[in-house]
Every structure is written in structure tokens, then in C-alpha cells.
Amino acid sequence: MFTLGESASGAIVLAAFGDQLTRAVPLAVSADIAYKKLAMGRVTATATLGRPAADVIAELDAGQRPEFPVAIAIQREDGAVTGEMTVVWTLRPNG
Description:
Blueprint: H1 2-17, E1 24-35, E2 43-49, H2 53-61, E3 67-76, E4 81-93
Antiparallel strand pairs: 1-4, 2-3, 3-4
């Protein structure tokens, strides 16, 4: 479940900030997971940015190294939440 959640968080980071890769590298800073129920069978992960992408990019434009959380919900096919995860990411400016 951890790998699935981390993959989902990376996918949303690339979707939101892929156009910034020429000037910044996305790096995971930390991750926390809470296991809620047994994950039997097929599970899916849904990731949500914890801050507006525009705010993160504005900090990058200002020369800062922005951090932002990504919340992930992991669910079984029956809809039961088997895990909740938060990955904190940063955009490290190149150079």
C-alpha cells in the first residue's frame, strides 16, 4: 500500500508541476501512512494536492524552495478505505 500511495503522489506532482522540470526537481521530503483496514484484492489510490499549484509555483518564482503536502486515500473495490497517506514534497530549484 505504501508503494501505491507514493506512486499516486508522484503522479499528481508530475501532472501539476511537470512543466517546471527544466528549473526544479520534485523531491519527496517525508511520508506518513495510516493502515485502516485489510487490503485484500484490488486497491486504488487517489491523490490530492494540499495546496494550489499556482501558490507553489509563485514561491518557486520568488526563489524559494516550496513544500506542499499530497493526501492519498487508498480504497478497496468495495469502497472501504484501507489506508490514508500524506507525502510532503518540495520543488528544489536547479542550480
